[in-house]
Amino acid sequence: MAAIYQAAYRRASSLICKLHSTYVRKMRYLYELKEDDSLCRQAQTSGTFYLFHNLSPFLQKVGEKYFIPQLSAAEMKRILEEFKETEQWIEKSVLIGCSDERIPHFALDLGALEKSVIESELKGSFTDLRKALFIVDEKDSPLLASAQSLLQWHDSHQYCSKTGQPTQRNAAGSKRVCHASGITYYPQMSPVIITLVSDGSRCLLARQPSFPQGMYSALSGFCDMGENVEETVHREVAEEVGLEVESLWYSASQHWPFPSSCLMIACHAIVRAQQAEISMNRLELEEARWFGLEEVVEGLKRNPRSSKQDDGSFLPWFPPKQAIAHQLICEWVKQQTSQLA
User: Fold this and answer.
1) CB 62 within 8 A of CB 124
2) pTM of the model
């Protein structure tokens, strides 16, 4: 009886979706794949696959550009056969989206197989995600980030936190269930604010010890339990650089997979020019200082390679355009430039 209801629901959904836009049809289809295991397993036989190896995505280089190849279900079957593995491996994949033509996309981690053999067979390489995000096309970076985050979540949430019993995932990988406790677990993101502080004519950029040499970025920090975004901005700025925020406004948001799956909430904040003396928290930061417009414009032109000096020191450079910190800095430059015009 349940199968009859599901079939009727799919027919009704299909009819309704014909009346909607391509985007709505796509979102409705993805919802069906997440809720219907049999439909999702069927989609795995006709979808495309992005490969990972121990959470590192597979890339191919053509000329000077890097691409994320999409492997068909037939190609995946052939590769698994060469490794003497069964097609059941494909059921370990996670649903990460679909095309406008409703071709589903999955991500699959082949970490248990020999990496070098796969790379040789497919003529590419598994690349550390931090590097991959900045060398693939800008529109593909979010796909890699979300795929890796979902694969990592499944790897680290295989047991119920209440009972200690194994959890079971659904076919799409959109949730895990503990049948002993009845608890359903869904992938979660940690909210993080990233704030570009300005005193009206300068912006404040800082370095953490883990940053690449010479790189400065906006201030960032996790939201504490019970805080809203505004409270987090005020607290983080006070904690890290000893300044009191006078006003702030939201800019944009971005999913970021480091250190774990995070939602970066980007804001601009203003502090009083008369009270702009930095008192840096050295447990959090290695350096923090004010930058003028001209220095920021020059810094945006540099990359890690061009910033290195003959004496081994580094001129300041800023996160690449795929990072939301870059967007904040460019917005500040645009605002300052318009004020001077």
Assistant:
1) no
2) 0.87
Which of helix, strand or coil describes residue 185? strand
Q: Is 269 helix (H, G, I), strand (E, B) or coil?
A: strand
Of 130, 322, 303, 318, nearest in space to 216 by CA? 318
Let me know if 264 is exposed, middle or buried by CB neighbors in 10 A (0-12, 13-18, 19+): buried
For residues 152-173, give the mean pLDDT: 96
Looking up tokens 């985007």, which residue turns up? 23
Alpha helix positions (H), 177-310: 229-241, 293-301, 304-307
Contact 204, 296 (CB under 8 A): no
User: CA-to-CA distance for 91 and 9, rounded, in angstroms?
Assistant: 24
- Helix, strand, coil percentages for the chain (3-state, nearest 5): 40, 25, 35
Please state, in angstroms and rounded to a whole number, the distance separating the CA atoms of residues 268 and 203: 10
CA distance readout (Å), 282 to 164, 213, 277, 318: 39, 17, 15, 21
Dist. CA 333–CA 331, nearest whole Å:
5
Return d(Cα 300, Cα 317) in angstroms, integer: 6
Cβ-defined contacts of 309-312 (< 8 Å, 24+): none
- Lowest average pLDDT, out of 5-14, 253-262, 331-340, goes to 5-14
Q: How confident is the model at residue 319 (pLDDT cuts 50, 70, 90)?
A: very high
Alpha helix segments (H runs only) across the chain: 2-17, 22-35, 37-43, 73-82, 115-122, 129-135, 141-156, 229-241, 293-301, 304-307, 324-340
Query: Rounded to an integer, what distance in angstroms lies between the CA atom of residue 80 and that of residue 108?
Result: 12
